[in-house]
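Working notes for the structural subgroup meeting. M.R. asked for a predicted model of this chain before we commit to crystallization trials. I am recording the input and output together here so anyone reviewing the notebook later can reproduce the run.

Input as submitted:
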Amino acid sequence: MTSRRRIAELLMPWGGSVGAGLGWALTHQIGSTISYDNCLLMSPLAALLLGLLGLGLTAGGAFFSWRVWRRGEAEAGGRHFVALIGLLMAALLAVPIIWQTLSLLIIPRCFG
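Returned structure, recorded in token form:
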């Protein structure tokens, strides 16, 4: 097994945690920064694309964790547990991404 392949195998269980964290942070920081700094730039299309990008990162990371968890590697219980935590974290952080995207679509751009 090459060293790159070995590194990828070691990091796969962490995919859900990392992907969900990055997706949520991206959606939250960019969405709030644009809507607070210059509210006219945050159009409904931009908000929707930003939410889809965040959900895409979350789903992509969850997919890597799911692949490890599905194997059910009994001899590597730690990897199996980390993959399960990654899946749960991806599901948990998908909720605020959806809520923030919906709020950017529902509330008028320059409200208040």
